[in-house]
Amino acid sequence: MTRRREQKISPIQLDLIRQIAQRAVRLYQDVLGEDIPQWEFEAEISMAHASNPLRLGELLEANDGNFAHDIGGIRNNLNRLTGELRNCFSPRYSA
Question: pTM for the whole thing?
Fold first, then answer.
């Protein structure tokens, strides 16, 4: 079994992840009518960021289309056991 490299998340990054998750909750409610808890988005974004560093500030400020691409892609392609992104998905706001 391969071990993934752990990346520490700074307090500033954690705050950005929380803000991104809040925006994602609103987007999923408004566009898809889905109520997904904020903590799910926080966990998924944190896992994706640990294995594939994201430009969190730019993602937070992205237009709706690019934001939805990255958040939806992370939700749909994240291996929740390893934190790796599958299916050759690459977020537009990867570092």
Answer: 0.89
